[in-house]
Amino acid sequence: MTSLFELEKTGDVDQLTSLLAKSNSEPVRRRAADILGEVEAEDHEVLDPLVTAVQNDDSEAVRAAAIDALDQRHAVERLVAALTGEEVPTEGAEWARAEALVETLSADQPELRMASANALGRIGNKAGTKALAKRLGDPDPRVRARAARALGRIEDPRAVTALRKRLGDESVDVRREAADSLGRIGGDEALSALLGLLDDDSETVRRIAANSLGNFGSAKPLDALVSLLSDENEAVRRAAVFSLIELLSNAPGQQSHDLRERMVEKLSATDHRSVVDSLVDILDQGTQPHQRRNAAWLLGRVAGDDNREAAIRALASVLDDKDGMTAQFAATSIAEVGGEAAEDALLDVLDDPEASTDARAKAAFTLGKVGGERARRRLNEIIDDTDDEEVRKRAFSALSKLGGRG
Length: 406
Known about the structure:
This protein is an all-alpha fold. The protein has helices spanning 4-10, 13-22, 26-36, 43-56, 60-72, 76-84, 94-102, 110-123, 129-134, 141-154, 160-165, 172-185, 188-195, 203-213, 222-228, 234-250, 253-270, 273-285, 289-302, 308-316, 324-337, 339-350, 357-370, 373-385, 389-401. InterPro entries: ARM-like, ARM-type_fold, HEAT, PBS_lyase_HEAT.
């Protein structure tokens, strides 16, 4: 049978909907629902099978996954209509749509309460805040989790106190959603609540807090995240690094400049290998341009002597990144690290016959900042031997900084 990974890559809707309806494996059905929420397909191919799964599947987890998949496709109102037998408005004033859904938040069927919570979060109107906060006490943890998530989407500060109370919920999913929503809403009370989790005995709770602190658009959580780099648990340390990257992305204007300076100062003083390893992972596996750009920028400034070579290898590997800003930050970071290891890596890229023009051109240009006599000789040879005009132009530029062609 074709793997779910392959079905996700190919977007085979027929196979995915068949697995959702007929597979005997609960994890397979749940994963099929997850994929159907994101697959590129016409709604008429996907929505009815998901609605059917919510109505008929024996597994609570599968039903929950199908509800979230409908939410992903902005079609959860269709499910509410199917469960209630009444049409739910999808157009018109947000407050009116929210008020219509509030009524179903107290329905007997938990799936309907979950769907309504998701829909209210998607609408994002504060008219739903009070009812959603009440549902944080719902007997079904799936409902509590989605109510917490919806409140984070709405970003109403009035929900902070109620969300704070759920940080001790028996359900990990509820705790995670409450913490994430507090990070989204922000403010001193939300920050105080999350900081209170950093000494929790549970590594899961500490990791949830670390992830949520990255949502703040200011430097306030910086010291807390740096402290987590000494956590005994690797997953917590890595979550802290990812959140530091998110802080860089979220901080506005002048705050971003100040935050970068403070972050570099603090991380340079720690010399934690987990920082470099996590930044390398973001460059290697990350899919979000803002994360990869900031990882490339930060890596060159916090690598330290012990991690220099690992950082340079990772940066050199993205000199031809399809995102031009990531590639440019990688080049400037290699120059920032400098030294013989940087020169070696750049010469390897320059001499790699499979490297792209962009990568070789950036390597040639950066050699002008970090290269020595060996680089000067090789750049001279490149100018005479290469047919690539862009590489030749960059080599000329680099040579001018290394004393010319003499």
